[in-house]
Amino acid sequence: MKYWQGIFFMVCLCLGHSLHAQTITICPSCETKSIKEGVEIAVDYDTLLIKAGTYKEFNIHIDKPLTLIGQNLPIIDGEDKGEIITVTADGVILDGLKIINVGTSYTKDHAAIRMIKNKNFEIRNVVLEKLFFGIYLEKASHGKIINNKIKGDAVDEFGSGNGIHLWYAKNIEIIGNEIRNVRDGIYFEFADNCTVKNNHSHNNVRYGLHFMFSNHDVYENNVFENNGAGVAVMFSKFIDMRHNIFRENWGTASYGLLLKEINDAEIIGNTFEENTIGISIEGTNRIAYNKNNFIGNGWALRVRGAIYGNTFTNNNFLYNSFDLSYNSNLNDNVFDKNYWSEYTGYDLDKDGIGDVPYRPVKLFSYIVNRTPETIILLRSLFMDIIDFSEKVSPVFTPDNLLDANPLMKKAGSKEPQLAVKSK
Amino acid sequence: MFKILKYSFYDLIRSRWSYVYFLFYLALGFVLLFLNNDVSKAVITLMNIIIVLVPLIGTIFGVMYFYNSKEFTELLLAQPVKRSSIFLGQYLGVAGSLTLSLVLGLGIPFVLYGLFRSDAIFDFSLLLVTGAFLTMIFTALSFNIALSNENKIKGFGYAVLLWLFLAVIYDGLFLMSLIVFEEYPLDTFSLVATMFNPIDLSRTLILLKLDISALLGYTGAVFKQFFGTNQGFLVSMLMLVLWTVLPIWRLIHKSKQKDF
């Protein structure tokens, strides 16, 4: 009985709200001409319907739970005067707005949309252009950022902001956004339990995605293309990286993925294609690399030291100039059952696993590590000769750094022999 | 000169070795493309072979031809023909037939496998151009060696040593000096050192078109800045021309003075 009463009460409450909630239409020729006015006269749970047009406004402060819906992409032009929308209330929904000309400042982080200490918000189908910071979450939680398009005009790192910026945010979902030409596409600082999915972050000045001190986050099925560097994950724990594509992050010190001081992460099913460095690794513990593809990179993996207890299994290393560069004589990591396109061994018992172990570190990569200028001798006969002699009897490279069970066929490809046997 | 060029060219074209050389490249091209089925990847593999094999064959063939046709040369010298045209004609005959074997031998399979429809055409033509240059350079060098040494064994020895030096030992010394002086800025030094070895120069030139991603890292940017631009490309081509012209000039100069 009590249960039914509860439901009845809830339904009443909902009906009550929907009865109360009004729709306020805003357009240049309406009664309410500006969004600020609209926000002022609205009461909790109202909907502001913003019709197409240009609204020259900034410092719009939303302090009650409202839904702002833009019809045919109305433009809010901040005229470079400062922050445009600041939200401090819970349950605010922003949909279908176009916000341009956020003021650049060297003392304040002006954003197109800023969420402060609120919950359950949703930002969707918003277009941001000519911005400093795009969407800035400050101690916000349980929000969704879906299908937005952010296009900045950043040229240098110090005079530009980030596309989506999370600072002390929790449980945020960032899905299906396109972010380009800003400093960091997506930036996480102290952001925990967040999901980043199906985004396309490209042509950014610094990173496509940047993690700092953020734990228990997942990012999957994103594409990071042509950024200053693809993704930087620093000082974070329990990050789950799956099925992302890191492509064409080229430059003097560029890489697809940078891992620095990372513990207990999983990197599964990602593709690293034509980056200067596929993954640059420094100070990481207990990371599982599984089923990734490294195709045509300068360095597939570049280890800068202090990595312990990492496992590399079932990855494909295809046509990289160097599969692995390693700078110490100590190895505590496991390479097992990967496919290496440069493997020259044989498989007499036809079990799909090479009979001779593969050593991914070449002497040349060791030398290049030490004296970078020697890269000019890449693919010379002399280098091939000393690489060969090092392969036969390792002197400089760690002798236990090897893949004892290199695959003969690409990992993940169908295994016809087994299929036939099982029939 | 052209008559002599024609004679030695036809002589070589008729000889077994040109065919063997031509067939070797033909087979190589077909096998590579058959195994790879990707024109741009085959270009990379081919580069490794061209860099090593073309100079070697140019050297050996040049020395061999010079010593073998010595009697014919002496006969020609008795005739009222200019010395420079005799030697230049012979040289161009050898270099020309070798280059032709190389270009046709590799060109035919690649064209058949759809080179013109692939975007690797520029890389491939660069490969052939450097291959041709390497042939000319090393044939000229070997002619010089043969001309300066009456003793066949000595001449062969020097020719092989020359190849070994430029293909392997030079890089070894280069590497050593880079490591010894690693505290100093070495970008300019390595650029210059590359320029002084035609094999290194060709390799770097081709590599920067192919393996760019690795070279872009770190100091690679400096090399890219140099070789990647039109200016750098022109300078390297000029260096290759210089490498061809200088030995030829010495060949003519020497042949005029030599007492047969």
TrEMBL record, chain A:
InterPro entries found in the cross-reference section = Carb-bd_sugar_hydrolysis-dom (IPR006633), NosD_copper_fam (IPR026464), NosD_dom (IPR007742), Para_beta_helix_rpt-2 (IPR022441), PbH1 (IPR006626), Pectin_lyas_fold (IPR012334), Pectin_lyase_fold/virulence (IPR011050)
Source organism superkingdom: Bacteria
Residue ranges of domain Carbohydrate-binding/sugar hydrolysis in the record = 50-189
Q: Which residues form the signal peptide?
A: 1-21
Pfam (any one): NosD
Keywords tagged on the record: Signal
Name used for this protein in its record:
Nitrous oxidase accessory protein
Q: What is the lineage of its organism?
A: Bacteria, Pseudomonadati, Bacteroidota, Flavobacteriia, Flavobacteriales
UniProtKB/TrEMBL annotation, chain B:
Q: What is this protein called?
A: Cu-processing system permease protein
Species of the source: Pricia antarctica
Key words of the record: Membrane, Transmembrane, Transmembrane helix
Determine if Membrane is one of this entry's keywords: yes
Q: Does the keyword Nucleus apply?
A: no
Regions crossing the membrane: 20-36, 42-67, 88-112, 124-147, 159-181, 201-221, 233-252
